[in-house]
Amino acid sequence: MFKQLYRKLTLTNALILICFLLVFSYSIVSIFSYALGQSSKVTLRDKANQIIRRSQELGTFDFIIVEDYKEEDSPNKNVLRDSLDVHYIVWDNNGRLSSLNYVNKDLIKELFEQSREVYQNKSTEFEKMKVSNVNYQIYTQYYTLPNGIGGVIQVYQSSEIDNFILNQLFLIIVTIGLCSLIVLIIISSFLAKRSLEPVKQSYERQKEFVADASHELRTPLTIIKSNLEVLSLKEEETIAENKKWFDNIYTETDVMAKLVQNLLTLAQMDNKQISANMEIVVLSLIIEKVCKKMSVLAREKDILLQSVIADDVLVKGDQNRLEQLFVILIDNAIKYTPKGGQVKISLMTTSDKAYISIKDTGIGFEEEDKNKIFERFYRVDKVRSREQGGVGLGLSIAKWIIDEHKATLEIKSKLNEGSEFIIGFTSKNK
Q1: What is the b/e burial string over 65-74, where b = at least 16 CB atoms within 10 angstroms of the residue's CB?
Q2: Which is nearest to 64 in space by CA: 109, 98, 92?
Q3: What's the pTM?
Q4: How far is CA 320 from CA 128, 278, 323, in A?
Q5: Reported CATH class of domain 275-426
């Protein structure tokens, strides 16, 4: 599945990059084309104005016809100088050709109609024209002599050089692009692999999660089924006589109910269907309430539950979620503390922080397990965890609650000596 998706992403990324290259190439060529066009307009207009000024000075449309003339032989050499690619035609008020500096019969025929239109409208035009497979840019302008008689000047040049430059520029860009295609494919492959990595990890976690959940549900169901089978063979015995089997069923049912509830909570967390309802709460009262609730469980295991709680500590948080957090952590501490051990809960404050410490004398864990204990279904001691009714989901929920409250978490633990969880909240006490 992921190989096919990887190929699709690689192809998609490559196509996107190639399209970007083509758009970039087209944009560069378009910009250069516009710049060359504007430059030609300025050149042609300046040339036209130069000739118009001289024509008005002479008071005539009739200029020297320039073909093979030399600058030193021309009295108007600064005006009538012929460049290699810029030429002009002057039409008088009767539509007759008065002056030109280059003879192109085919082009002259095409320009005549345009000159008549400009003469009638007394306007100025700039356009492109193709004659005899040659592209031209033409500037046409109406002007008058001092005596009020109007005429038309047309200045033009071939745009083949500009087209050649643009074509060469496009070829250069495309060539560079094609040479870079391998690099683009490598880049797209890298991007596809990188973008798929979190998806793949999420998929693997989901598979593992489903497998673990199925296993954890299967175990209590198997025990319940086995006990029911035993009960079915003891139909004549009383409930009191079969109390052991009923207790087993009740215990496993309770385990399964907690598991289902935790799975539902985790699913809601993943889908962002739940969030913390933040408000100012008295953290002292929340911890006292949880300690009273958990003291019963501690007494059943002959564990000393101690609490040192500062008064009237205020924090911003969700009261229900905070209760759930401390129940999970204290319950965990009691579960993994042997008979006769101690669990101590402390609430201390600084100028801007409130710290809750949950410390036990339990089994502890290795340093390498510190970053794994919040993973779903991860248990340091699976056998003992199963005996205590743990399924490895509580700490995952606890970590989510801590993150939702933007609280800090510090863990201290030594194998067979105990563990300490220290959670830091921003205090709202003034």
Answers
A1: ebeeeeeeee
A2: 98
A3: 0.50
A4: 78, 10, 5
A5: alpha beta
Extents of the domains making up the chain = 2-179, 192-250, 275-426
Counted residue by residue, the chain has a size of: 430
The pair of three-digit structure tokens given for residue 429, joined into one six-digit string: 């006490």
Whether 247 and 381 have beta carbons less than 8 Å apart is answered as: no
Q: What secondary structure does DSSP assign to 27-66, as a single string? A: HHHHHHHHHHHHHHHHHHHHHHHHHHHHHHHHT-S-----
Res 69: pLDDT: 38
Please identify, in words, the CATH class of the domain defined by 2-179.
Answer: alpha beta
- Three-state DSSP class for residue 414: strand
48, 32, 160: which is closest to 101 by C-alpha?
Answer: 48
Q: Which long-range contacts (CB under 8 A, 24 or more apart) does 392-396 make?
A: 392/212, 393/259, 393/262, 393/263, 393/266, 394/262, 394/328, 394/331, 394/332, 395/328, 395/332, 396/266
Q: Answer whether 345's CB lies under 8 Å from 356's CB.
A: yes
Q: Distance between CA atoms of 189 and 197, rounded to whole angstroms?
A: 12
Residue 332, H or E segment? helix 319-335
Alpha-carbon distance of 402 to 404, in angstroms, equals 5
Identify the three-state secondary structure at position 175: helix
pLDDT tens digits, residue range 144-193? 999 889 999 989 888 777 777 778 887 887 787 777 777 777 777 777 77
- For 307, counting Cβ atoms within 10 Å of its Cβ (0-12 exposed, 13-18 middle, 19+ buried), the class is middle
Beta carbons of 399 and 375 less than 8 angstroms apart = no
Question: Which residues face 307 on adjacent strands?
Answer: 345
What is d(CA 99, CA 89) in angstroms, rounded to the nearest whole number? 6
Q: Are 14 and 184 in contact (CB under 8 A)?
A: yes
Q: Is 114 exposed, middle or buried, given 0-12, 13-18 or 19+ CB atoms closer than 10 A?
A: middle
